[in-house]
Structure formats: structure tokens, C-alpha cells
Amino acid sequence: MADSKKYPSNIFVSLNDLLKMEHLSRGFSFLASKQKVRSILGGKHASKLRGRGLDFEEVRNYVPGDDIRNIDWKVTARTQKTHTRVYSEEKEKPALIIVDQSKSMFFGSQKKTKSVVAAEIAALTAFKVLKEGDRVGGVVFADNGIDIIYPKRDRKNILRFLEKIVTRNRELIDSEPMEFDKALNTVLSKVKNIVTHDFLVVIISDFHRYNPDLIKFISRLSLHNDVILTKVYDPMEKMIPETKIIAGDTKRQLLLDGAERKLRDRFENTFNDDFEKFKEQMKKHRIPVTSIDTVKDTDVQLKELFKSNKR
């Protein structure tokens, strides 16, 4: 492995960096009971991200056989009809965080690489889930292999997950781009054996290569689980600067003249159209797709997406 210490810190991530995410993992929640109607998962089929105990669902007309201890006397007095409060048992919501550390993530034009931001999102999510009292595990998807940390309700388990992310992140300097379809099939087959039902599955990637098999698998996952997709992108992937630049992929180079307005517009439109198409495909399966860039603070963006709603 090449010595990554000679590169700026925001090119690679350290375990120390990820551990700092623990004290930032507040001010947001994946729990629908806290996010109410504005939850990004609001309206999702009967799968409410919640903790344990009893969760209030609704007030409805009293039906013979209902527990009289649950009668809502205020509503009953107001409507002159007997109403009862309905509760549902809250279930455990274990989480599996799938984080992409493949070659396409090793890019950043201003502040951080996509791979660093993805690692930060994974750490913030893991610590938050643990704080909610649920089991959390992860899958690190990299060019040189796949690491799996099975869900546990244990901080040491999160440390193992973060260590795997750091190791794969440091390998990016020397790794060769993987055969995407082959690696994808391996990841999907392994995830299928971990995720059963009532899981929260968070997939963090640039989703650079949309694939029908990927879409099919994600849609199947969402049948009995809550799935959130988080796309990490760099501003230069969306809009090229107004100057001449040389773009390359280690094998070929291309001179782009960013001063040409038509070229910039076409570049931006292609990015937007591609992303919107992907979101529309996911929307059919009621799977939310969020996006986080490599410039603004990761925790601030995550909190804006999942901020707690105390109304």
C-alpha cells in the first residue's frame, strides 16, 4: 500500500476522523415517530423506524372488546362518541450500512474526496443507530474485496466497521477499478443473507454506474425493510469550471474548454437528468434517494436531511 500520509488529510480518512463523528451524531433521527409527517420515510408501508415500547398510532371510534384503559376521554367528551387510543408494539430496527470505497469514489475537486465523505456518513449513521439502542453492522464495498461486519448492539462492533472502512480507503491509491457487475453480485448475495426484515438499510455510494440488477435488488430489499440511498457527489461532476481543464482516467486524457457555455450546460443537464431518472426509478418502489456533496460539512447536510421534528 502506498504511503497515504504524504497526501492531504481530506484525501484519505483516519480512524480518529471517524471517531470524532460520534459527538456530531445528534440533532437528527431516522425515527419516523420523531420526524412525523415530514420524515423522509413518511408514508412508507407499515415500517416505522422506531425504538422500543409502545408507539401511539391513532385515535378511532371505540369498538367492543377494546381495552377501556385506552379510552381517550378528551376526544370522547368533545365528540360525544367513545374514542380509544390505538398503540402498536415497537420493534427492533437493526441497521446495515453499505458504504462504497471503490475507485470512482476516489475523487474530489475542492475539499474532500467522495470516499472520505462516504466514510463520514457511515460513521455518523452507525453512532446514531447505536444511540437509538439498535444493532448496527456494515458492508464495505471496495475494489480489492468486501468486508462484512454483522449487526451487533456493541460500540466495539462499530469500531471494527470503521477500521475496515479506513483500511479500504487507504487502499484506493493503488487499487484497480473492479469488475463492477461481478463485485455487485457478490455484495448482493452476501447482503441477502444478512438482511431479513424490519432492517434499516443505508447504501452510501456515488451510484456512478446504475445497473438494472442493482435496482432490482434494492427494490426487493425495500419490500420488508426501510432502505435509504445516499448519493455522494462532487460539484465538478455536476458543473465544470469556466476554464480549460484536462480530464483523464489513467489511460486517456481529454481537453475540455469550460468557457463554452453549451458544454457546461450539457454537462450539468446530463448529471441532473441521470440523477432524476434514478430517483424516479426508486420512487416507484417508495425508496428515498438523498444527496450529499463533498464541500459542505457532512454532519450539517445529514442533519438537514434527517433533522428531528419536535412538533
Keywords:
311 residues; alpha/beta; Rossmann fold; 2 domains; six-stranded mixed sheet; two-stranded antiparallel ribbon; 10 helices; globular
What does this structure look like?
Helices cover 36% and strands 22% of the residues. The chain contains ten helices and ten strands. The chain has a six-stranded mixed β-sheet, sandwiched between helices. The protein has a two-stranded antiparallel ribbon with strand order 1-2. Helix 4 (114-131) packs antiparallel against helix 5 and helix 6 runs parallel beside helix 7. The longest helix has 23 residues, at 261-283.
The CATH topology of the largest domain is: Rossmann fold
Distance between the termini: 51 Å
What is the domain tally? 2
User: Could you tell me the number of beta strands?
Assistant: 10
Instruction: Give the neighbour order of strands across the main sheet.
Output: 5-4-3-6-7-10
How many helices in DSSP terms? 10
CATH superfamily of the largest domain: von Willebrand factor, type A domain
The CATH architecture of the largest domain would be 3-Layer(aba) Sandwich
Mean pLDDT: 83
Strand content: 15-25%
Shape: globular
For the largest beta-sheet, the strand count, sense and barrel status come to: 6 strands, mixed
Q: Kindly provide the radius of gyration, computed on alpha-carbon positions and rounded to a whole number of angstroms.
A: 22 Å
Q: What would you call the structural class? A: alpha/beta
